[in-house]
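seq as requested:
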Amino acid sequence: MQEAIKNVTHIGAGGVIGPSILKALIDSKEFNVTVLARPESNSAYPGAKVMKVDLTSVDAVADALKGQHAVITTIGGTSISQQKVIIDAAVKAGVKRFFPSEWGNDGGNAKMVELLPLYTEKNDVLNHVKASGLTWTAILNGPFFDWAVDVSFLGMNLKSPTAQIWDSGTNVFPTTLRSTVGLAVVAALLNPEATANKVLRISSFVISQNDLLAAVEKVTGKKYEITKVNSKEVIPVAQQALAKGDMENGLFPLLLVVTFGGDEYGTDYTAKGSDNELLGLPKVDLVDVLTKLNKGEKV
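struct tokens:
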């Protein structure tokens, strides 16, 4: 029987997904929540205890994690590998459960890893936690749907009637609301035995770009002007940009190649099964969610 998890530390509580996970932890009223922040951070996290810590020091992080049952990391970008320090500190502090910064696609597809070095780092971190003796839970959620619509990551938004459709637009991909990702984390913490040492696959929708376009046109009442994108032409240009350290023109397009790439990149990880039911996640309707987003409502 797994010990109940009450004391939870969140590292990386800013960014795209951090605030939604932190909100879910606090709103659940099930946990004592601590945020570890870098010494130079001036961010406030109402409802959580904040500790400023040198995240590059195993000893400093271990001291901060004493008495904690679980650690959740939402560290991204060039800091992914820094999680190894945090894992080692968690072991030293006696932490029971670790959530690595996955929050994306399935790094088990060799072609995707070859295309995106980011996933080599993520896999290294996951292997590090597996070898550490900690129990762990990794969550795959695809693109964060509400964010992705807002910034046109999925090829379109609700404001401008234009769309970029990659290849045929028929390959399906999982995508999850940020609020649902937060609920998944809470559910996994409350059910530690069933979620120990597992990759959890969740989604709000499993859709294609063409599905999304039809729903967006229905909600906005507008006919969108379509531009076609050939992924095979994008790859070499993006790889050259990435080699020069140009993330915007390198990493971003390659993430889209993987998102819309279908079976070639193992994009639809829900083909291996979904953990929505295990975690009790809410079912949502695509048009309903887009309608709320179009009205500026929270989802």
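The chain has a mean pLDDT of 96.
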